[in-house]
Amino acid sequence: MSKFEITFELTQHTPIIHFQADQAGATLRATELKPKFDRYLREKFRENKVGVPATWKTSKNHEALDYKVKIIAKDVKSQYINRNNGPMFFANMGPGSDKLFSETRQPIVVEFFSFQIDLLAELKKHFSEFLFVTNFGTRQSKGYGSFFLSDLSHIPEAKTPYLEIPKYLMIENEVSVLHFINYYYQLLKSGINYFKFQDYSSHNCRKRVVKYEHGFLKQYVINKLNYTWEKPWIKSQFIQEIPLKKGATYKFARAFLGLYPSAKFEQKNENCINNYRFSLNVTHENRTQDGEIKRFKSPIIFKPILFSDHWKVFIHVSPIPDQLLDQTFIFDNNRSKPRLETPSKPIDLADL
User: Fold this and answer.
1) Residue 350 pLDDT > 90, yes or no?
2) Rounded to whole angstroms, how far apart are CA atoms 135 and 139?
3) Tag placement on the chain: N or C end, fewer CB within 10 Å?
């Protein structure tokens, strides 16, 4: 091997979701990996309060670092996404979808090339930790597109919280582990309805709720921040007139775990009567100096990795930016546009 090259062997742990269904065999791409790795390295330099050497950049006017990436993958399989194999994926599904799964069971080779020997040393030093906190493709924060070095001894387990999936759940493949992440994230963000089957044909309903598990975020907002959960307020605005608690401070706390242009709400009652499910357009009232907040990706990244006989799902959290605190958002169903603020206090995601 040339002194201007370094090579890594990767294992793919969960499918990556691609946009172009016509490019069968597409896998991890250098066009996604390199910009992310560049940003990661620049952030490392900022943390150490030093600048990236000018000779490491492709030019004075660009932040891109002066190295090339080549990815070699064999026996790549692709399949269309459907509701059974694609939990937490909400785009069009089935044949004709513009996205598909792609994965390989074979090792993936990643080659870095640069005439900057010192830069290659930095790439080698940081690549494993970069992979450990990064997924790729669509829905990457929910565990899709998880790759890591084939040598799992580079995982810094002691520093990172994780979910170790109990063996009695019989998690056999990557689709099962993605369903597990979906369940956990629902419990974290909004709570879980537990069902058993019972036929209510007169109400066109077959599922009966037997238990509701309050979400971790709701409990945190109430017990740690002393705010009131937003759902009763939303229900009072769009479903039915219900009395709200006097003196209660309702807050749009759910935005802290990810903000998108629309939000979905639903409720399923024991007798399947007065159920509801609806979507609202959610827009920012534009009160920050940085301008309108249109999206805020989830600050939580789930990194599933398969060990020899079990799965671990590592959890990485990023701080919630101050720009999201105490902001007003408009909830629009084309008939009314009530407003609700986010909490003025931040959430300690590690504590949550």
Assistant:
1) no
2) 9
3) N
- Residue 204 confidence (pLDDT): 58
Q: pLDDT tens digit string along 135-154?
A: 998 889 999 999 999 999 99
For helices 117-132 and 30-47, angle between their N-to-C axes, nearest 10 degrees:
100
pTM: 0.85
Helix, coil or strand: residue 174: helix
The label of the residue with tokens 């269904």 reads 21
Is residue 93 very low, low, confident or very high in pLDDT (cuts 50, 70, 90)?
Answer: very low
CA distance 64 to 266: 45
| Residue 61 CB burial class (10 angstroms; 0-12, 13-18, ≥19) | exposed
Say which residue the tokens 């775990």 belong to. Answer: 257
Write the DSSP string, 108-130: EEEEEE-S-HHHHHHHHHHHHHH
304 and 145 in contact (C-beta within 8 Å)? no
What single string gives the DSSP state of each residue in 282-298? EEE---STT-----B--
* Phi, then psi, of 71 in degrees rounded to 5: -120, 125
Is residue 224 a contact partner of residue 343, using CB atoms and an 8 Å limit? no
